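AB hydrolase-1 domain-containing protein
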Amino acid sequence: MTLAKTANQSTVTVSGHEIEMHKGGSGPPLLFLHGGGGFGTFDPTSSPLADKFTVYAPSHPGFFGSARPDWLYTINDLSHFYKDMVQQLGLDDYVLVGHSVGGWIAAEMAAMDHHNIKGLVLIDAAGVRPVNGEITEVFMVSGDTRLKLAFHDPAQVPNYDSLSADPGPEGATVMHGNMEMLSRLCWRPYLHNPSLTKYLDGVKTPALVVWGKQDAIIPVECGEIYAKLLPNATLKSIDNCGHNPQMEKPEEFNAAMAAFLGEL
């Protein structure tokens, strides 16, 4: 799901391509990169993050009905796009947060150049391949199946009905387009970059790795890999929680974020 239309919505043109940007809060800058399913029921621009930070939450190019740049084929390409956006917006000494595929983008950005990233937060991030488990197939299954995989216990998710409701023809078209763009970026190799693990030890930025312990899409083993390879990382695994801790366990998620961000 994209964020609701708000007074803080604008468009930003980066590398000749226009994207939707939501902005909220006040304080130093924080960039939040959404996962393949969008923001869901979690709006970072009105969350507790916005109490201490100016939160920037863009929609990825090619998602939610936006034009698909012909040159954008990989997560690495998208990471360069966002590095250009950060420079264009003048974000400096900023906190970089990413969920799922957005976490993969964030990890790639930090590996490219972390000098102006004050803190890095990866939430159930794609990007690395587990050694023992596997990343679940999400492209060749129904939307209902993907939704079931996304949460350990839907009863814990505030406003879950808004996620499971019939999106209607227009919404279904948008969701199909999102998955098409996601598969374009992540299909081969599947939801990871084999080279990323070779670069993470150079990221000296303080990092928090947050993971739902029962994530049925990207296993917590991947969080352990990130936490091991990032030199200054802490792993916070949340029990009885799936792929979206910011939605399924908001109190524990917000507490972990507040503790980490308060020490930067």
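thats it. The CA atoms of residues 16 and 69 lie 9 Å apart. The helical segments are 75-89, 101-112, 143-150, 160-164, 168-186, 220-229, 245-248, 250-261. bye
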